[in-house]
Amino acid sequence: MEALLSTKKVSDFRLGLQGGLSIAIGYMPVALTFGLLARTTGLTVTETVLMSMLVFAGAAQYISLSLIAVGTGIIEIILTTFIVNIRHFLMSASLSEKLEEDRLYKKLFYAFGITDETFTVISVKDGKVRTGFAVGVMLISYGSWVVNSGVGYFIGEILPEFLQASMTIALYAMFVGLLVPSMKKSVKVTFLAVVAGMLNSILLFTTNLSNGWSIVLATLVSAVIVELVVMMKGGERANE
Q: Secretion signal: which residues (predicted)?
């Protein structure tokens, strides 16, 4: 009986690795680019790899690089990345209902390993998800992100200096590339981006706030404004 249970666990883990393989492949170019940009931002290879190991959140890490590049303080960086990743509370709560009952330390691992991609793969699996499957999906995705971040850093060392300098522009280009498709799909996202941009500009030019605090306040205020507008519109439709 123990042998059968052991085989079952290995099988679940293997299925998880297979399910996460596409994520690992998809993470490669993004992690490579992150490592390259981290080098041009001034991080060491140790700092770059540690950020990927301890944070494991693509959008938050890219935002951190942009904030580091303009000399933002650590508190502003923490608050900004917290706001960006606040959706992980909802994803963690959702997966806690999907996964089989397990010990607290394993649940903490699940919470750490949740990304948009791993959440999607695990949540669409039929029935209760076993621990082995979730671990397999998250482990192969995590390994790809960490390893390729380091590889990207070393690739940056062999690039000509003029290309390394130009990569600072690539950081902003990547943000535009991430934002524009979302804006095309949602009017709400477009409105949020415009309001946040306007508020950030106003705060920068009319106050003594640093770049980091300006971004944090603009993000929070614009999110509240957009949600209030959505609620008001919803109320008006209900009264019609």
A: none
